[in-house]
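HOLO CASE FILE
Compound: octanoyl-coenzyme A
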Amino acid sequence: MAYENILVSTKGPVGLITLNRPEALNALNKALMTELAEAIDVFEADDAIGAIVLTGSEKAFAAGADIKEMQSKSYMDVYKEDFITANWERITTCRKPVIAAVAGYALGGGCEVAMMCDFILAADNARFGQPEINLGTLPGAGGTQRLTRAIGKAKAMEMCLTARMMDAEEAERAGLVSRIVPADSLIDEAIKVAERICSLSRPSVMMAKESVNKAFETTLREGILFERRIFHSTFSTEDQKEGMAAFAEKRKPQFKNR
Ligand code: CO8
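Model generated. Tokens follow.
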């Protein structure tokens, strides 16, 4: 498929999507988000792909939704088209793991897209922020919700109300990112992590992702029950039998994703 705003490639079982509008610091316009959703559709449907890495450039993961595309829209425009949620939500419905590899700016919609991924690996030059308040508006793709759940009210509130950016170290301390890696090894490291995930039992990986995500959607009691039931269900898979047999026999497991 020919894309104009993203680059798509595969590294073995890992699908790599690179946001590619360098002239606009990867600002997220409608065309880019449509292509991103399509690329996720393709990787999700491809049985050879076990995990996806989403990245940008060394200067910017994405500097936000495209301000120039948005600026002249009326309330009726954005309300009627439910601006632009349908495409933007696609990452969150992907059942395979999606890792955000963030270097440079992840601002506004860029920070929101990174937070839609399962976890964020940050380059040491990464900067996160929700600067929409500077534009006379506020985050519109989950920033006030996901950031607050990720880092707590005090920091999320300060970032949304003042547009203060967080550097990678603060983001790691606050729990927004899983790890910091040197900028020049970010993609290699993200692919290595994705390959590690792909080497494991895919149904178990998908179930673990589903179960962690449940923690954001439900009560503790319901979440724990969900986890227990889904844990029970792994006992019907060949991979659970293989994983435990391999441990007992002191050998490496050979998962078949069944
Ligand atoms: N939209 C459009 N163009 C952008 C954007 C953007 N978000 N960010 C940067 N650009 C463009 C610049 O206009 C510039 O283009 P040109 O060369 O034609 O003038 C080019 O990218 C390079 O940018 P700068 O010259 O500004 O680069 P600097 O290194 O000087 O500054 C910054 C980098 C600090 C990142 C600066 O570009 C900036 O502040 N950008 C805007 C950040 C921002 O406000 N982001 C939030 C946008 S609003 C949003 O994301 C709402 C999300 C809600 C989504 C709802 C969907 C459902």
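CASE NOTES: The CA atoms of residues 11 and 191 lie 8 Å apart. Strands lie at 6-11, 14-19, 51-55, 60-62, 98-102, 105-107, 119-123, 127-129, 166-167, 179-181.
CLOSED: yes
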